[in-house]
């Protein structure tokens, strides 16, 4: 955990990992798919990660997800409909299946490498791993 805090601090992030509690992130992943469909994936991801890793918010709570969706610029009606239905559930399940097929065993993971590796590394090391995976690709 100390490594994660140090890496975050080096990027200007204050990570309060002691506040984070494991929760079911299935709906948060569905919300991210909605955000992607609306061209707001980056904003949604920033809000989700900040809420979880810095604020210690329960990102399984529909009220929290509704607020974060609005903060990311999503239509509140669309977010409410998503949370009361099952939109993108199949896509999230497929994402999980692909991760298993790719050999991912934990998060965050860098999947552009073989085998996947932990993405909890200094940016320079991640860059090196990505560059190596590009040069090692056939074709």
UniProtKB/TrEMBL annotation:
Annotated DSBA-like thioredoxin domain residues: 3-111
Protein name per UniProt: DsbA family protein
Organism field: Actinomadura alba
